[in-house]
Specification:
It comes from Leptonema illini DSM 21528. Pfam families: MFS_2 (PF13347). One of its GO terms (biological process) is sodium ion transport. There is one protein chain. This protein is about 80% helix and about 0% strand. It starts with 8 loop residues before the first helix and ends with a helix. The chain folds into 2 domains: about 200 residues, Growth Hormone, Chain: A, CATH 1.20.1250.20; about 230 residues, MFS general substrate transporter like domains (Growth Hormone, Chain: A), CATH 1.20.1250. It is globular, with a radius of gyration of 22 Å. By secondary structure, it is mainly α. Helix 4 packs across helix 13, helix 11 runs antiparallel to helix 12 and helix 14 runs antiparallel to helix 16.
């Protein structure tokens, strides 16, 4: 693990385009699939929720298994890149099938099967894709830089999906036809950009073939890696907090601020600020290290929620200004966890003599999905405890207790979660000196 050669701009952009392509279908599912299932395809909300629950259980087994399998693969293209080459087209097709809206009777069965196919196809591409970060370079600085490019393009994908999907759907005579075209377009983009990443990246670090591992053995290996567990804990609570904010901000602007029309501007401000401030955090990393920079960003995000907790009815444009600064802090979660995972893999190899890139990335990807599910669950339960109901919301007014509950959900709950995440990262033991020891071993 001695190689610290700088990565070329072509390699960084080529790698980042893979996340742009992969994030287009993934973010489409995140933002629109519930609406599609209920209002376009004709499923009940309960059926849609059951499909999501089954998919999460499947991911708990599927993601680590794919990662572990990639650790045992040996081809002329490397260990991870073949998954991009051979998984790209099935990935694109699976998204098209998911939103194709066929006129059939067995709607639940079709939605469940296609959602599981999409989840599996996404994992087949995304888990090895993420693991390439650990094998393309052994330099922590280059890994952070590569991840910054990747996450900048991922944020662009979020903005693209958020801004383009509904206009495309609305351009057709029916939403079924519109979503079918979205599935075709986004599926093609996902496949093409995934293949571009295969063609422009490589795996440099030495290949270590590991034996087949059962599920219990995988858990044992992961449990023995304390830095990975701490990082995993941090990402779960941080992403759950951000999911709560992203969910509740819709209700906050509609009912507390009575400015529903400004909600899209708030989201755009948040993510544009996150993208634009990525280079600033990378500069700070060189001075104070990744761990401290990550915590500084999340502390800034937490701090920006405090005035929204204390002020009952702020000016909506002041809230948007707060969201811009909060987005700058949120930027760190798109870079540093992903660039810190390779160090936990290096730690495991240094400690055990075996390298399990795919296995750890498989668990990490599942944690991302579980965190989003946890955040959604907390937001839903919180709204219920606050006394919110859709029928009451239809009148456009809510009681004072419910409005206070929405404000607490937007601020106090995420702050508490992020404080826990900051504590996890504080105890994360890998520093720059230890990373140099890994590279020299």
């Amino acid at each position: 693990m001695q190689d610290t050669e700088r990565l070329s701009l072509k390699t960084k952009i080529g790698y980042a385009l893979g996340d742009f392509g992969g994030s287009i279908p993934f973010q489409s599912v995140t933002l629109f699939i519930v609406f599609y299932f209920t209002d376009v395809f004709g499923l009940s909300a309960a059926a849609a929720g059951l499909i999501f629950a089954i998919a999460k259980l499947w991911n708990a087994v599927c993601d680590p298994a794919i990662g572990s399998f990639s650790d045992r693969l040996q081809t002329r293209w490397g260990q991870k890149r073949p998954f991009l080459l051979f998984g790209a087209v099935p990935f694109g097709i699976s998204f098209f099938l998911l939103v194709a809206a066929p006129q059939i009777e067995a709607k639940f069965a079709y939605a469940l099967v296609t959602f599981l196919l999409f989840s599996t196809a996404y994992s087949i591409v995304s888990v090895p894709y993420g693991a390439i970060t650990a094998s393309i370079s052994s330099s922590p600085e280059e890994r952070s830089s590569l991840t910054a490019y990747r996450m900048a393009f991922a944020i662009l994908a979020i903005l693209f999906v958020g801004g383009a999907t509904r206009p495309i759907v609305d351009a057709f005579d029916t939403p079924q036809e519109g979503f079918r075209y979205v599935g075709l377009l986004y599926g093609v983009l996902a496949a093409v950009f995934t293949i571009v990443t295969f063609a422009t990246t490589y795996e440099r670090s030495r290949v270590t073939i590991v034996e087949h591992l059962g599920f219990i053995e995988r858990l044992r290996i992961v449990k023995s890696n304390v830095p990975f567990l701490l990082l995993n804990g941090a990402i779960i609570v941080h992403l759950a907090a951000i999911t709560v904010v992203a969910t509740i901000v819709n209700y906050y602007f509609k009912y507390n601020l009575r400015s529903e029309a400004l909600t899209p501007l708030a989201f755009v401000s948040l993510f544009v600020a996150a993208a634009l401030t990525l280079p600033l955090w990378l500069r700070l990393e060189k001075k104070i290290g990744r761990k401290s920079t990550f915590n500084a960003g999340m502390a800034l995000l937490s701090l920006m929620l405090v005035p929204l907790l204390l002020i009952e009815n702020p000016n909506p444009y002041v809230v948007i200004a707060v969201m811009i600064v909060a987005g700058a802090g949120m930027s760190t979660i798109y870079v540093f966890p992903w660039s810190m995972v390779p160090s936990t893999i290096d730690y495991s190899e240094w400690k055990t003599g075996q390298r399990h890139e795919g296995l750890f990335y498989g668990f990490f990807y599942f944690s991302f999905k579980a965190a989003a599910a946890l955040g959604g669950l907390l937001a839903g339960l919180g709204l219920d405890l606050a006394g919110y109901s859709a029928s009451a919301g239809e009148s456009g007014t809510l009681g004072d207790g419910t409005l206070t509950g929405i404000r607490i959900l937007l601020t106090a709950l995420p702050i508490a979660l992020m404080m826990a995440g900051i504590a996890f990262v504080h105890f994360y033991p890998i520093d720059e000196a230890m990373e140099r020891q890994f590279r020299n071993s």
